[in-house]
C-alpha cells in the first residue's frame, strides 16, 4: 500500500489521489521518510477543517528526487495525539499551529504555546496579553523586553531576552501582531485580481516571491501552461528582487555595526535596482508585475539595454565596496563568530534558504525543485559552513554576483511576449496543488485545495520566516546582547510573512 | 575667563563639524554646522514629559549634569590664562566634577526602571571607570614633570625640550582624544547614530528625557567635547600670547572635530566586549608617559 503520493513542484492532483491513513501510520511513515535524510524536509504540514474533523496534510520534499510526497490523515478536532515533533523537531511549529486552529492536543510536544493568535483560533480566551513567556527565577539574571514597537520604522514583534549581564542566555520571540488573516481572505475574496493583490501583500519585501508562488499555483490548479514569456518575467523579477534586497541588507548590516561608508554606499546601490523595477512595471517593489496567465508589462530590448546600463554602473561600485567591507578589520571582528547556528541546529529547526545554506545545509528550491526558467539555468547554490553573521553576509555578497550573472544570461534571450490578455481560468474541482518558490529569503510554499464546485476551500502559505525565526533565537545564545541587532539584520526575517 | 568663552564658542559648532564631515565623506551634502545647536534651541523651548515611575532624581539629574560640566570647564585654563577656578590640585576637582555629573545621569537612568537604561548605565559606568586611571596617571606624570599641581601650572610651564618630551606630548594628545571619545560616547566605543537601544551606551540612558532636559544633556555633550578640545589645545599652546592662542585653539578644535568625523566614517564600532581592552590601552599609554617622565627626570637608573 502507498503511504503517500509523489508530485512535482507546481503539480496539482485530485484530492482523492492523496492516500489517507490512520494517524499512527501517518506519523510512522512520514517520520521514517525523514529519518537520517538531509535531502528531505517537510515543506508544509497543515490541517484542513471539515466539519468536526480535521484532515492533516503532510508534504515532504525530496531534494534529490525532485519530488514532494504528500500524505493525509483525518483526526477529530480536539483529539489527543502523539506529536511528530518528538521525532523530528522541525514539526514543532506546524503542530503548534494545528493546535491553535483546531484544538488538537499533543502529548509529547516539547513546547506548546500559541504561534500567532490567528483570528480563526479555536480558543478565543487565549490572548496576546497573557502569552506564556519562558521565565527564570534568579537574582543574577535579568530580563530585557524589546518591542513590540521598535525604534526605527520596522514591523512589530516582541523579543524577551534573559541575560546574564551582557550575555544572552535565552531569547524568546513572540510574533502575531501583524496577523491579518490572509489565508481566510484568500477564501473570502472571490476575484482573481483580489487574490493576486493579496498574494502581493503577504510580505512586502517578497512581493515577487509570493506572487510567483500564487501565480504558478493558480495556473497549475486551472491546468494552464504558462508561456515562456511569463516564466521569463517571473524568473527575472525573482533575481532582481534578490539583488535589490541583498544589497539593502548589506547596507543595513553596515549600519548596525556603525560602518557609515558601507551603509551609505550599499544604500545608494539598492536604489537603481528598485528604480529599474519601477521603469519596468511602475512599482519599485514590483507590485502589479506578476499576474496569473498574463503580463501587463512586456519586456523588450529597450528594457534589456537599460538593465545593462544599470548593471554597468552598479557592478564596479558594488565590487569595490564589498572588497573594502570584507577587508575591514573592525567590520570582520563584528561579523566573525557572531550569532552562530551550527549545522545540527539548522537541521533540527528545519531552516530554509540563506538560514540553511549558511551552515552547510543545501536547501535551494532553484536547484532541488526548479520552477519557471530555473531548470534552464545551471544553478549552483552558495553554501557556507560557519553559520555566523559572516557566512550570511558572504552568501549575500556571492548571491548578488551570481544573480547578476543569471539576469545577464536571461536578458540575452528575450522571448516574444504574447500573454497580454487574461486567459479563461477555472480551477478544477477537488484538487490539491502545491507550489514552491525560492524567494530571496528562502523557500516559499503555497498550498491550495479546491472544493467540489471548483472554489478555493483552503489556502495555506508558508513563508521562509516561519521556521527561520527560531534560528535567530538560537543564534544569539551566549552572544552579547549588543550583537542582537546584527544577528537580527543578518537573518532579516519577515514579521508579516510569519504572522500572515 | 578666556577659556570659558572660547569653549562655549567652540561648543556651538563642534558636533556640527563632526556631522558635516561624516555627511561629506559618505557622499551626502549634510546639514549646516549649526544644525545641532538649532535642534538644541528647539528642545530648550519645549516642556519635558516625565514618566510616572520616575522620582525627583530623574528631574534634577539633567541640570546637575549640565552644571557639573560647566563647573569642570571653569577649571580649564588656556595657555597663560588660568581658568576661573584654579588652585593646586584642581585637576582632581575637574575629574570628580565630571564623575559627579555622570553619577547623576546613571542614577537617573536607573530611576526610570527601564531595562534598557539600566544596561546603558552599567556600560557607561564601566567604561568611564576604566578610563579614569589613564587620566590620573597622565596628569600625575605631567605634575611630576613640571613640578606643578594645577592645570594652569602644568600647562604654562610645560616646555618641549628633548625628543622624549615631544613624544610625551603626542602620547598625551592621543590619550586625551580617546578619553574624549569615550566620555562623549563616540565611535569606536559607542555609536551615537544608532537607533538600536540594545547597542547604545549613552543614548540609551537618556531615552526617557525630553524637551528642556534633553536639550541640556545634548548641549552638555557639546560642551564636554569642546572642553576636551581645549585641554588638547593646551598641549600645543604653552605660554604664547592671546594673538596666537586663539587661532591655535580653534584650529585644534576644528581638526579634532574633523578627525572624529573621519574616524567615524571609515570604521565599524567595536564589539562591546572589546571595549574594556581598548580602554585599557589608554592606561598603558599613560604608563608609558609616566616612564617617559621618569626618564626625563633621570629617576631611572
The gist of it:
The complex is a heterodimer of chains A (500) and B (301). Chain A is 40% helix and 17% strand.
Report what the structure shows.
The complex is a heterodimer of chains A (500) and B (301). Chain A has 500 residues and is of the alpha+beta class. Chain A has two domains: 5-123, 2-Layer Sandwich (Beta Polymerase, domain 2); 182-499, Cytochrome-c3 Hydrogenase, chain B (Orthogonal Bundle), CATH 1.10.645.10. Chain A has helices spanning 23-34, 92-102, 182-188, 192-200, 207-221, 228-256, 260-281, 301-327, 329-335, 343-349, 354-357, 365-368, 389-410, 465-475, 484-491, 495-499, and strands spanning 5-7, 12-14, 20-21, 40-50, 53-62, 67-76, 80-81, 105-106, 142-146, 158-164, 167-174, 431-438, 443-450, 456-462. In chain A, the strands form four sheets. In chain A, strands 1, 3, 4, 5 and 6 form a five-stranded mixed β-sheet that branches. Chain A has a four-stranded antiparallel β-sheet with strand order 2-12-13-14. In chain A, a hairpin with a 2-residue loop joins strand 10 and strand 11. In chain A, helix 4 (192-200) runs antiparallel to helix 5 (207-221), helix 6 runs antiparallel to helix 7 and helix 6 (228-256) packs antiparallel against helix 15 (484-491). The radius of gyration of chain A is 22 Å and the shape is globular. The two termini of chain A are 37 Å apart. The model of chain A has no long low-confidence stretch (mean pLDDT 90). With 301 residues, chain B is mainly alpha-helical. Chain B has one domain (2-10, 39-296). Chain B has helices spanning 2-11, 14-25, 35-44, 56-75, 90-111, 115-146, 151-157, 163-183, 202-205, 211-237, 242-265, 275-296. In chain B, helix 2 packs across helix 11 (242-265), helix 3 crosses helix 10 and helix 4 runs parallel beside helix 10 (211-237). Chain B is globular and about 60 Å long. The mean pLDDT of chain B is 90. The chains are: A alpha+beta (500), B mainly alpha (301). Chain A binds chain B through residues 142-146, 151-152, 165-166, 254-261, 263-265, 268, 328, 330-331, 333-334, 338, 480-485, and chain B through 22, 25-28, 115-116, 118-119, 122-123, 187-188, 191, 193-199, 264-274.
Amino acid at each position: 500500500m502507498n503511504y503517500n503520493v509523489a508530485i512535482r513542484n507546481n503539480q496539482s492532483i485530485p484530492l482523492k489521489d492523496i492516500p489517507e491513513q490512520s494517524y499512527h501510520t501517518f506519523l510512522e511513515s512520514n517520520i521514517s521518510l525523514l529519518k537520517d535524510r538531509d535531502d528531505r524536509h517537510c515543506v508544509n504540514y497543515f490541517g484542513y477543517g471539515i466539519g468536526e474533523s480535521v484532515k492533516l496534510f503532510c508534504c515532504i520534499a525530496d531534494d534529490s528526487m525532485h519530488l514532494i510526497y504528500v500524505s493525509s490523515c483525518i483526526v477529530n478536532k480536539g483529539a489527543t495525539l502523539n506529536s511528530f515533533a518528538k521525532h523530528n523537531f522541525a514539526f514543532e511549529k506546524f503542530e503548534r499551529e494545528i493546535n491553535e486552529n483546531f484544538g488538537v492536543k499533543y502529548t509529547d510536544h516539547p513546547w506548546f504555546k500559541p504561534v500567532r493568535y490567528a483570528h480563526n483560533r479555536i480558543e478565543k480566551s487565549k490572548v496576546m496579553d497573557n502569552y506564556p513567556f519562558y521565565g527564570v527565577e534568579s537574582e543574577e539574571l535579568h530580563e530585557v523586553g524589546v518591542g513590540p514597537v521598535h525604534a526605527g520604522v520596522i514591523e512589530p514583534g516582541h523579543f524577551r531576552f534573559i541575560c546574564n549581564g551582557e550575555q544572552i542566555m535565552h531569547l524568546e520571540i513572540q510574533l502575531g501582531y501583524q496577523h491579518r488573516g490572509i489565508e481566510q481572505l484568500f477564501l473570502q475574496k472571490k476575484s482573481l485580481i483580489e487574490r493576486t493583490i493579496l498574494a502581493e501583500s503577504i510580505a512586502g519585501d517578497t512581493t515577487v516571491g509570493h506572487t510567483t508562488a500564487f501565480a504558478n499555483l493558480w495556473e497549475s490548479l486551472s491546468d494552464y501552461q504558462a508561456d515562456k514569456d511569463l516564466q521569463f518575467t517571473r524568473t527575472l523579477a525573482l533575481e532582481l528582487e534578490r539583488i535589490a534586497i541583498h544589497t539593502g541588507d548589506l547596507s543595513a548590516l553596515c549600519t548596525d555595526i556603525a560602518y557609515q561608508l558601507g551603509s551609505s554606499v550599499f544604500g545608494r546601490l539598492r536604489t537603481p535596482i528598485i528604480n529599474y523595477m519601477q521603469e519596468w512595471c511602475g512599482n519599485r517593489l514590483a507590485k502589479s508585475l506578476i499576474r496569473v496567465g498574463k503580463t501587463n508589462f512586456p519586456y523588450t530590448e529597450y528594457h534589456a539595454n537599460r538593465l545593462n546600463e544599470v548593471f554597468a554602473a552598479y557592478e564596479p561600485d558594488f565590487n569595490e565596496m564589498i572588497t573594502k567591507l570584507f577587508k575591514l578589520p573592525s567590520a570582520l571582528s563584528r561579523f566573525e563568530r557572531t550569532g552562530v547556528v551550527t549545522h545540527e541546529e539548522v537541521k533540527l529547526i528545519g531552516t530554509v534558504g540563506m538560514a540553511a545554506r549558511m551552515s552547510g545545509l543545501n536547501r535551494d528550491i532553484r536547484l532541488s525543485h526548479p520552477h519557471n526558467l530555473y531548470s534552464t539555468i545551471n544553478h549552483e547554490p552558495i553554501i557556507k559552513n560557519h553559520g555566523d553573521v559572516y557566512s550570511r553576509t558572504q552568501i549575500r555578497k556571492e548571491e548578488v554576483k551570481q544573480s547578476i550573472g543569471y539576469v545577464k544570461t536571461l536578458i540575452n534571450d528575450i522571448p516574444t511576449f504574447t500573454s497580454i490578455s487574461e486567459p479563461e481560468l477555472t480551477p478544477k474541482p477537488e484538487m490539491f496543488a502545491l507550489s514552491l518558490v525560492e524567494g530571496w529569503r528562502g523557500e516559499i510554499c503555497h498550498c491550495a485545495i479546491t472544493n467540489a464546485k471548483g472554489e478555493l476551500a483552503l489556502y495555506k502559505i508558508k513563508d521562509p520566516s516561519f521556521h527561520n525565526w527560531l534560528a535567530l533565537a538560537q543564534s544569539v545564545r551566549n552572544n552579547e546582547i549588543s550583537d542582537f541587532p546584527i544577528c537580527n539584520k543578518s537573518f532579516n526575517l519577515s514579521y508579516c510573512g510569519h504572522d500572515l | 575667563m578666556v577659556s570659558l568663552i572660547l569653549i562655549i564658542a567652540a561648543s556651538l559648532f563642534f558636533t556640527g563639524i563632526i556631522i558635516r564631515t561624516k555627511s561629506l565623506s559618505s557622499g551626502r551634502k549634510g546639514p549646516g554646522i549649526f544644525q545641532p545647536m538649532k535642534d538644541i534651541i528647539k528642545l530648550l523651548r519645549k516642556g519635558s514629559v516625565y514618566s510616572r515611575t520616575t522620582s525627583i532624581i530623574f528631574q534634577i539629574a539633567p541640570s546637575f549634569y549640565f552644571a557639573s560640566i560647566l563647573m569642570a570647564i571653569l577649571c580649564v585654563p588656556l595657555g597663560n590664562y588660568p581658568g576661573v577656578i584654579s588652585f593646586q590640585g584642581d585637576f582632581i576637582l575637574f575629574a570628580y566634577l565630571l564623575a559627579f555629573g555622570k553619577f547623576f545621569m546613571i542614577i537617573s537612568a536607573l530611576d526610570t526602571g527601564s531595562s534598557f537604561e539600566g544596561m546603558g548605565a552599567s556600560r557607561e559606568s564601566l567604561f568611564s571607570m576604566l578610563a579614569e586611571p589613564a587620566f590620573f596617571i597622565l596628569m600625575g606624570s605631567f605634575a611630576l614633570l613640571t613640578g606643578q599641581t594645577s592645570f594652569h601650572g602644568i600647562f604654562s610651564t610645560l616646555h618641549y625640550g628633548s625628543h622624549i618630551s615631544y613624544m610625551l606630548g603626542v602620547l598625551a594628545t592621543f590619550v586625551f582624544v580617546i578619553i574624549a571619545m569615550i566620555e562623549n560616547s563616540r565611535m569606536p566605543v559607542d555609536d551615537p547614530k544608532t537607533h538600536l537601544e540594545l547597542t547604545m551606551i549613552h543614548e540609551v540612558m537618556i531615552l526617557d528625557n525630553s524637551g528642556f532636559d534633553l536639550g541640556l544633556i545634548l548641549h552638555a555633550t557639546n560642551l564636554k567635547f569642546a572642553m576636551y578640545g581645549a585641554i588638547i589645545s593646551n598641549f600645543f599652546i604653552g605660554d604664547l600670547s592671546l594673538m596666537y592662542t586663539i587661532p591655535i585653539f580653534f584650529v585644534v578644535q576644528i581638526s579634532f572635530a574633523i578627525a572624529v568625523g573621519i574616524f567615524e566614517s571609515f570604521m565599524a564600532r567595536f564589539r562591546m566586549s572589546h571595549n574594556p581592552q581598548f580602554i585599557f590601552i589608554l592606561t598603558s599609554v599613560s604608563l608609558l608617559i609616566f616612564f617617559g617622565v621618569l626618564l626625563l627626570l633621570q629617576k631611572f637608573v
